[in-house]
Design a protein that fits this description.
Layout (H helix, E strand, L loop, with lengths): L1 E8 L6 H17 L2 E9 L8 H13 L2 E4 L2 H4 L3 H9 L3 E4 L9 H8 L1
Parallel strand pairs: 1-2, 1-3, 3-4
Length: 113
């Protein structure tokens, strides 16, 4: 299973968290049989849905039938509606903190509550 790992922090002062996220995501991929094709990393607010790295990761996953992997839901976006639209777009999504299970709107709703 091919995958793109998406890493994000909000400010330049938090860039050390990108290395932590990468280690967690790589370990998850190794343990669950995901072949890492690309790692996309950016410093940007999760409130901004127009992030170029995020768009690239999503579009690549859709175009090449890959799974998008992030360490936590809030690394993808701060708005649940954004993640819901991502799920609706057909992107296969795995969140390290939730384990190796497909993220559906039901799973998203339960963990958002």
């Amino acid at each position: 299973m091919d995958a793109v790992i998406y890493l994000r922090c909000s400010t330049d002062k938090q860039t050390n968290s990108l290395a932590i996220q990468e280690r967690m995501a790589r370990s998850f991929c190794d343990k669950n049989g995901f072949n890492i094709i690309e790692i996309v990393s950016e410093v940007a607010s999760g409130k901004d849905d127009g992030r170029s790295g995020f768009a690239h990761a999503v579009n690549r996953c859709l175009a090449e039938d890959m799974t998008l992997i992030a360490t936590k839901i809030d690394r993808l976006a701060r708005r649940i509606s954004t993640v819901g639209r991502l799920i609706d777009s057909g992107v296969r999504l795995r969140i390290v903190s939730l384990g190796n299970q497909p993220v559906s709107k039901l799973v998203l709703a339960v963990f958002s509550a």
